[in-house]
Amino acid sequence: MAPGGLRARPSGLLAIFRPRRTWELDLRPVRAAVGAGVALSAARACLQWIAPVPLKLVFDSVLGHHPLPGVLSWMPTAPTPRLLVLTGAMVVIALLLGLTAFGATAFLASAGQRVVHQLRCRLFAHLSAQSRSFHQRHAQGDLLSRLGGDVQAMQSVVVNVVPVVAENTLTIGGMVAIMLVLDWQFSLLALGMLPVLVLVVRHYLAVIREAQREARRAEGDAITAAQQILTALPVVQASGTEELEVARYGGLAARSLAANRRAVVLQSRFTPLVAVVMTCSTALVTLVGAREVLAGRLTAGDLLLFAAYFRAMYSPARQLAKLAGMLGRGQASAERVSEMLRIHDEVPKPLAGRRPPAVRGRVTFDGVTFAHGEGAPVLADVRLDVEPGERRAFVGATGAGKSTLLRLVPRFADVTTGAVRLDGTDVRQLDLDWLRQQIAWVPQDLALLRSSLWENIVYGSRWTSRSDAVAAARAAGVHEVIAALRDGYDTDVGEAGGRLSGGQRQCVALARAMAREAPILLLDEPTAGLDASTRSVVGAALDRLSEGRTTLLVTHHLQAVADGYRISVLCRGRIIEDGTHRELVGSATAYRQLYLADVAHGDDEPRAGDAGPAQRLSVVGQLRAGSGG
Ligand SMILES: Nc1ncnc2c1ncn2[C@@H]1O[C@H](COP(=O)(O)OP(=O)(O)OP(=O)(O)O)[C@@H](O)[C@H]1O
């Protein structure tokens, strides 16, 4: 997945100083908490600056004989009371340091959690808004791993690393300034190793991030494979390829393990390296500083102050070294989340989409051509008017473009050229939510939500109660099928409705379509794969459901639409024949062939002289009569 079009990202430490741009974090809702956290961090920085001063004064003006600075002339002159004041100050400063540390961390960490939580919700909303073609291109497992593991990794950084950085930036800045004022030459020497440290930190953060990037990619691939294997488990088990799939998953998981181990090895090299650089610096400061004290150019207290500042300055580097793995993983994850957020493959919503007060239900395909991306057209110049309340069936060979044509009506995809119109208005000018409210969609195999059966029936409708669901099922004529289930309407349908049979799922889909009370009905092979008796129940339900509604039905079962439907025959994306069964079966070549093939291979036993349209009509009629619809 190439991060095409992503703008260049700042690398290393810079990346966490520019969280809004790089990490897609919106800090506006947490301005107050961030402000409080930064203010407390600033207070803590000031306290850090003065924390070593009492000890310096003890050395210089209690143990030694240097006079106190003018601002401290109020202090007792006797050594013991002065010592008490100075040690008391040490304790008070330590307490205040603790309090400000607690406050700053609490504010910044909770702001971080909230911001990342919002990012997670935004990412989910973004993914939900993407078109079907986006979801066909991206593996679900990979998307889930971005939504779960990657956002979690970002949260760890924002909660653990950002407060450390925020707190120490001010501390270091102030300390460098104070050191330079006290003795700039010595300060430059003491800080001489700082660039080396920055280079080491940058280098290691970059390589650790690269290793983490690979680890996150491998984890995404492993989750994708697991999800695909579990989804297709019946096929895998039936094919006896479990071991093969387990090995495939193991290989991907091992790739993730190897990348993670590489990151850990890098991390474990990095921490001691930082310690070595720091020890060298400390040795240098002690060496030069002690010589300065001996030469009388610095007091012992000054050296102590320098040493304390020096230690305080290097502590963020030490902490970051410890957090480098987390930071690298967070950065790699932020890139993956950002990559998703920058893809915009949503069905475009008009700014002020129209919401007509009433719908008649005329659906017009006005010179519709459609191609998937840059591919060859799947539909070519389709022209068709479906009158309000009309029943229209689309038939044709596999891959002719029937389902695609249906999908253009609720704008699951948009036409390449031409227009789909509802009551004369281009569907792209209508409010998208309003448009979809006008349509009940019954796909071939509806994936149900994991909840009770009745909740699935009222899902997406204006009805909310169990009794509403029962009423809808009764109206659709599928109540008996549902009531016959052991738990009836309270049946837990299982993952994607997997605990129901195909026919039962289809009955739920039809009851749901009934509950939606939409004027337009789109049915994509609603009777495919059903046995003759279930098909008759579903067929009867379809008759009730399509009563008074504009109905567009895709089917391979031509006998079921011979009565009551106008029929369009699609071939390679074009409507080649159009009319009623009676009109077509006598004259139209393609339809006649399809019809005869259906009769010959259908579930219904072919009868002598079956090719006659009148006879077939009566067979369909008998079928329906038998269903009691
Ligand atoms: N996401 C996609 N990307 C590229 N091509 C696609 C995509 N989805 C479908 N197609 C192609 O579009 C063509 C029309 O598919 P469609 O599902 O509309 O056919 P159909 O007539 O409904 O077939 P069937 O009767 O088998 O369901 C097919 O050739 C199919 O391979």
TrEMBL record:
Keywords linked to the UniProt accession: ATP-binding, Coiled coil, Membrane, Nucleotide-binding, Transmembrane, Transmembrane helix
GO MF, one annotated term: ATP binding
InterPro entries listed in its UniProt record: AAA+_ATPase (IPR003593), ABC1_TM_dom (IPR011527), ABC1_TM_sf (IPR036640), ABC_transporter-like_ATP-bd (IPR003439), ABC_transporter-like_CS (IPR017871), P-loop_NTPase (IPR027417), Type_1_exporter (IPR039421)
Topology of this chain in the membrane: Multi-pass membrane protein
The ABC transmembrane type-1 domain, residue ranges: 36-329
Domain of life: Bacteria
Protein name in the entry: ATP-binding cassette domain-containing protein
Protein source organism: Acidiferrimicrobium australe
Lineage of the species this protein comes from: Bacteria, Bacillati, Actinomycetota, Acidimicrobiia, Acidimicrobiales
